[in-house]
Amino acid sequence: MENPESTVPKATVLGLLIAAVCYVTSCSVIMGLVPHSELVNSAAPFADAARYMFGEFAGEVVSALSIIACFGSISGWLILQSEAPKAGAKQGLFPKFFAVVNKNDVPMKGLIFTGVLMTAVLLFTASPNLAKQFQVIVLMSVFASLLPYIYALVALPIIMVAKSLNKGGGFIFYCTLAVIGILYSLFALFGSGGNAMFWGY
């Protein structure tokens, strides 16, 4: 990769903006198509929107494509759940067994541990209503993913001061962004509800 110091941040921000536009646009379309009374109780809003636009068969196709997309994302999540703990273990932040790899350089112990942990979460959040269980897991995921963001935002001004980057307007600008990000993250944390916060902790 040429000039990764510049390319990676640009790709990250651009990807985030594109994803945000797609999410906001698709959610706006769904809210405009599906009646509110039906949308609040919908377990598959994208499929319901497709049914309103193109008929029953289109809804089934969208549901099938959603399932395929979930299976397609498994490989990415496997990499994340193995490499993130491995990197943390190498830096002494996680237990050392997360960094143990097999002959193929795969952290199998870490994968097994996270797999068992995820299975336990599914069992403990079991519900007669699959949509309700999915909602609890999603809220837990939001809660767990927001904590690292808060830590990073709090650490930003500290690191900038430690590296003598606290001169000029740039420092004030980044501190302002950090405060906005922290406030939004706290708002999202409390908005996830008591159950998600309980399971997240």
From TrEMBL:
<dbReference type="InterPro" id="IPR002293">
    <property type="entry name" value="AA/rel_permease1"/>
</dbReference>
<feature type="transmembrane region" description="Helical">
    <location>
        <begin position="137"/>
        <end position="159"/>
    </location>
</feature>
<comment type="function">
    <text>Major component of the acid-resistance (AR) system allowing enteric pathogens to survive the acidic environment in the stomach. Exchanges extracellular arginine for its intracellular decarboxylation product agmatine (Agm) thereby expelling intracellular protons. Probably undergoes several conformational states in order to translocate the substrate across the membrane; keeps the substrate accessible to only 1 side of the membrane at a time by opening and closing 3 membrane-internal gates.</text>
</comment>
<feature type="transmembrane region" description="Helical">
    <location>
        <begin position="61"/>
        <end position="80"/>
    </location>
</feature>
<dbReference type="GO" id="GO:0005886">
    <property type="term" value="C:plasma membrane"/>
</dbReference>
<keyword id="KW-0812">Transmembrane</keyword>
<comment type="similarity">
    <text>Belongs to the amino acid-polyamine-organocation (APC) superfamily. Basic amino acid/polyamine antiporter (APA) (TC 2.A.3.2) family.</text>
</comment>
<dbReference type="InterPro" id="IPR050367">
    <property type="entry name" value="APC_superfamily"/>
</dbReference>
<feature type="transmembrane region" description="Helical">
    <location>
        <begin position="12"/>
        <end position="34"/>
    </location>
</feature>
<feature type="transmembrane region" description="Helical">
    <location>
        <begin position="171"/>
        <end position="191"/>
    </location>
</feature>
<protein>
    <recommendedName>
        <fullName>Arginine/agmatine antiporter</fullName>
    </recommendedName>
</protein>
<keyword id="KW-1003">Cell membrane</keyword>
<keyword id="KW-0472">Membrane</keyword>
<dbReference type="GO" id="GO:0022857">
    <property type="term" value="F:transmembrane transporter activity"/>
</dbReference>
<feature type="transmembrane region" description="Helical">
    <location>
        <begin position="111"/>
        <end position="131"/>
    </location>
</feature>
<dbReference type="Pfam" id="PF13520">
    <property type="entry name" value="AA_permease_2"/>
</dbReference>
<keyword id="KW-1133">Transmembrane helix</keyword>
